[in-house]
């Protein structure tokens, strides 16, 4: 398949739901393109979480400089669900952190776009290696602790986990620490698509009620439609307010999403957790993503 990546990049600022939807569309298109070239990797989670990434990186919530992702004043994002990295790579490319053409190297030998994020590969915007579920959020909480308690700066730390990932005990150790150390600079996003590798969350190992669990762990907990930009923006706004007002409470955003959202034949189907589209399927998907 002849795949071309557009050159267009997007700014990071307060913008309308329509503008964010346009960014999310480009992210989804780039996910499909990189996956069909790789012929391995995860489609479902990345497509389903694209609206979250568009809001977080392009709505003015994270401070970063695409031309210098080592800038000391940047906020941090840790993708705890490391297998979902095609969405992070597409997001960073759409922000202008590296040339979009590099998305064609996903999962190739020696690429900076490893199948799970590898910090040592040097891709701008990858703060830590991840993929062993439950560990990324623990690292992110450590970062937030060091920022708030030691360095006393105003950095924001964001981390996204899956919902199947909540079955890892270390997630809850991290949550307990975030609340105990009053990390109002920490924002935990849960991609609640109700799907994991082998089926529905409830059938594999029930983690519900997620909202009550997060509240009982001391988080200001907000449940949103993860495909509604207005709801996503107001949730991230509330996180910024929590930090500004020194509430002492970390924020949890439970984003209700559909795995594979945006592509009709993948939507809400856990079988798309870890497979790429064939050439024919990629053509169909790209025809829908316009
Ligand atoms: C510690 C650990 N155990 C198992 C895996 C294998 N694994 C990768 S993704 C996944 C399912 C995760 O489900 P969820 O967090 O809901 O992600 P989604 O299916 O929505 O992408 C599993 C079991 C892993 N990466 N790390």
How is this structure best described in words?
- The protein is α/β, with parallel strands linked by helices and 290 residues long.
- The chain has one domain: 3-Layer(aba) Sandwich (Rossmann fold).
- The protein has ten helices and seven strands.
- It has helices spanning 17-38, 44-48, 50-58, 85-95, 135-151, 169-180, 201-205, 210-216, 229-244, 279-288; strands at residues 76-79, 157-162, 186-192, 195-196, 199-200, 220-225, 251-256.
- The protein has a five-stranded parallel beta sheet with strand order 1-2-3-7-6, sandwiched between helices. The chain has a two-stranded antiparallel sheet with strand order 4-5.
- The longest helix has 22 residues, at 17-38.
- The radius of gyration is 18 Å and the shape is globular.
- The protein starts with 16 loop residues before the first helix and ends with a helix.
- The model has no long low-confidence stretch (mean pLDDT 98).
- The protein binds thiamine diphosphate (TPP).
- Thiamine diphosphate binds next to helix 2 and strand 4.
Tell me, what's the shape?
A: globular
Helix content: 25-40%
The count of helical stretches stands at 10
Percentage of residues in strands:
5-15%
The major beta sheet can be summarized as: 5 strands, parallel
SS class:
alpha/beta
- For the biggest β-sheet, the strand order reads 1-2-3-7-6
Architecture per CATH nomenclature, i.e. the level-2 architecture:
3-Layer(aba) Sandwich
- The number of domains: 1
Number of strands: 7
Name of the level-1 CATH class: Alpha Beta
Fourth-level CATH superfamily: Thiamin diphosphate (ThDP)-binding fold, Pyr/PP domains
Provide the CATH topology. Rossmann fold
Radius of gyration: 18 Å
Structure ligands: thiamine diphosphate
